[in-house]
Fold each of these.
Amino acid sequence: MRFLLVEDNIELAEAIIARLSLDGHAVDHAKTLAAADEWLAVAEYDLMLLDVMLPDGDGRAFLRKTRTTERVPVIVLTARSQVSDRVDTLDLGADDYITKPFDFAELEARCRAVLRRRGTPTPALIPLGGALFDPSGGTLSHDGETKPLRNRELRLLEVFARNKGKILSKTQLLDRLFSQDAEVSENAIEVYVARLRKRLSAAGVEIETVRGVGYRMTWA
Amino acid sequence: MSSTTTVPVFWRSIGQRLTILLAGIAAVLAILSWWMITSFAREAAERTQDNVLVASATTIAEALRSEQGTILLELPYSAFAMLDAIGEDRVFYRVAAGAQTLTGYEDLIPPSNPERPGDVAVGTIDYRGDQLRTVTVMRTVLADQNPVPVLVTVAQTRTGVQAIGSGLSQTAAVLSVALFILAVGLGTFAAGNALQPLNSFAQAVTRRGPSDLRPLRRKVPDELSPLLVALNRLMERLGQSIRRSEEFIAEAAHRVRTPLATVRAQAELALHTVEKDEEKQMLRRIIRAVDESSRSASQLLDHATVSFRADALAQEVVDLADLAEKVTDGLAPTAEMKDITLTLDADGPASVRGDAILLESALRNVVDNSVKYSPAETQITVTLAPADNAHWRLTVRDEGRGFSDASLPELTARFKRGTNVDQIVGSGLGLTIAEDVLVAHGGHLKLSTPDDGAGACVSLILPAA
């Protein structure tokens, strides 16, 4: 997917870009509203992440303006947590908001929810053996049958799918799945891996256990 | 403030103070008028007696005649008849030529005698145990061609005069008491009336919500206008300082949250690049600490908003079904991350009256709590149904750890968290916010453990519009 990130704090922007790239997304970065206008004029985006307090103006005014010309879904990044501010933001036409500081997993979940609500077509299907994996829609199709994946299965499968043949350790997987809730143990990974194996075995996709190291997914 | 404790009780109220002062003045006036009426009455009675005595003595004096050098007197009846008019007083008389008593009581000696014929001498003496009023007139009678000065003294006891005096005095006393009571009544009324503008002024100030800081525009008496001006100035300064602190809070939130977001994002990113377990552990701790501080900050701000808005509650009509949908939609992605199914069972419209933002904040905090404390792959159900024919009930039910019975009563207390929360990030303000909002709307929050065991059940009960 292609993101436009409008955020004036460079360190934060870099971290967001690095993290989104890690998941295979392309991100353009605008430090000001003026720069954002320029990007919007030349490129098509699946999603815009918009900070509300920017050096050259209020992101909410920009939001009101772009709502009339652009169809791109917007998630507002806000430091204002008060309910009244949040309601205000949604009234101005944002699709959702996320309060700083945020969890990347939550940002991802909100992006996915917004895209699903918008019904934006996602061509980025990943063929896995005999099955088709749709990470944006959260489904796995096999033998003409499309099944929804649970969120954690989906995230885990996404990590495996983007790392074909690579060995991934349990902690690596844990970080991608559960960075936000500390209560999850490594045993949970085993549970989800077991579920994925069951779903994928018919399609000829194999998740093998590499003793003492982690897991590796391979498919034809 | 300490000075008020030394002031007598009645000085604490201007009304009482005025009433007591007016009553005091009325008492002084009543006593004064009683005394004046009494003394005037007594004087008038005495003057009447004196006049009658003078007339009586003159009549006797005129009845004197001389025959062959002897002075004769035939007492005229009328002289005593006129004295009978004044009650049952006893009458005494003496007619004397020089030191020689011609007739009457020899020992009736008046305190003074007139010096010339035609003069009248009036006096008071004690005579045989009674007080007497005496009147003496002098008449010169010719006896054997010699003028002989004859003194005629008529005296009378004063019982009648005193009776009249005390009768009048009693009447005057009754009148004075009546006057006093009337004056106190009028004084109370006057004090109340004079204080009326002050009371209505105070009511106008009291009726306002604490956050209503518009200047007061009222007609007040001149004496109150300095107070009005001072109050308006105070409210203006207060309003400015509230606005400044609100701006400050928003700015502070922004300034704090942006770097926190950077720290969290960088730490999370680093989590994917470091290899060693202890390094990962450290990064997780950083993330946890950031989450904790940002969550506390949001809830403190929410709580401040709630306290501020609850004081001046908006009265718009809010559809709970609509509101519940907004909240569940907003939290669905968060719930989804833990594969929690968040379902809403609500048939609208369910109208209540109040502040939509506060109500949303209450429900959001409750649902957010459920999402946070529920294990992965469970259900949270939000149900909207009538509680009775005057109330709506929004129930949030989860399959989480529930409430431990011991901590149930105190969970809505500020900063109190259940004893079974383990490692979950939280500030302990969520349920407090919800309860504050509900109470401000005339409703209440109910925590319970469902009959069939597992999970928690939080009910938000609100009066229907």
Note: Residues 14-62 of chain B form the longest helix (49 residues).
Amino acid sequence: MAKIIPKIFRINTGSCNGCDVEFVATAFVDKFHITSLNVELVDDVKDANLLVITGPLTARSESFLKNALTKLRKPFVVVGVGTCSVSCGIFRDSYAINGPIDKFVAVDVNVAGCPPRPESIAEGIAKGIKVLEQKLNGEVIPKKIDTIFSDFSAPASFRGRMDLNADMCTGCRTCETVCPSTAIKISEDANGFIHKIWHNSCCYCGNCAYFCPTGAIFSTNSFDTVKLQNEKYSDVNVSHIFYDECTCCGEKYMPPSRGLLSKSYIKEDRNKLNAAICSKCRKEENFKRMYG
Amino acid sequence: MKLEEFNNAVKSKISCGYEFKEDKDSYSNPSAWIILKDKRDSEVVAKAIKAYKGRCVVATAYKNDGEDVHTVIYHFDIAGTIINMQLQTDDATIHAITHILPSANWAEREIREMYGVEPIGHPNKDRLFLDYSIAKGVLNEYISLSKMQLGVSDTDVLWNNVNKEAN
């Protein structure tokens, strides 16, 4: 089989240009290895086989995207760059947004990030080329692809994928409220809270970590945000925060977290304070102790 | 220019009455409010602004709560002094002042597409920045930030998919 030459055409569907600036950095800085992929940037969509789309798809840009798609020749691969292209990010539910782009075109690779690091964009394009090869071989559903560029790293201070330390969390919903892109949802079941962080909606602003009263939610420096379309909704950080059973009355209750106790009682013995007792029983105990 | 001087200049020309208020911002810069009883008097004020070599900085609008009335406020500048002209319309039309003050051109077009308030006599009928697929007066519908954040429409649809696939 002849070696495929990936020909990139880039479409901006109303992006803030953050992704586009990073795309330029990816193209021009050697350390991101884009030259090793032997890609070619074409100026006519008719010649392209790898479409890179940024932006949340504004009403104004919808017809331009549709028009470009009619000119594309199969097989082609679509790489969505930026959280906006994957889930509209912070612009979701605006009157002027018709996206995300997968409503109009079958996306193959998603690169979340706001904007994504050039390393992620390079990885996204590399994975896009793999999917293109698979499509040429007649594969309908793309197979899982391992990370291609393993020599990339981020500084420790880099705000990457969010994570949660469930031991520290009390399910207070502060993070859910302050999240500008609705990337966090907390639900409740019989055993406690379920905390979900959807990485494809996250804009990596760090608001949740900044406002978290117990320091439970934090950003890691991982920028592993390049996923195939079939992982779009499953790339989620799911944590369970379990209720305790009160040793006094048997009721289920949310125990104060280690994080909260260490902030409230600096000198006291936390183990003693953290006796498995619900707030109602604790009040009664205290009342008896003081007035009984 | 003194605000009193400007008030005297428009006093005899405004036919249906108005309220004149002096104001100061947090830096003690003086400004004035002209609250018109009849929206047709806007052209008179615009002509006075032109005579003083002023310009329209911007115009703002909003739909009054619970009624079909729009309030439109023009913000004028005469040599660093701000003069605000407030008027109300119950039929979603105002008299355009762009032919007097060309600086009001974009502001009036913006009010037309965001609030559906038609500036009668405006020389440009085209949209300013919204796509034609978006209905006129899109900001008449009040959407609170919290409602947007805590989920209707697309957010619900996407999160339903997340909840199905990630447990």
Note: The first helix of chain A runs from residue 18 to 28.
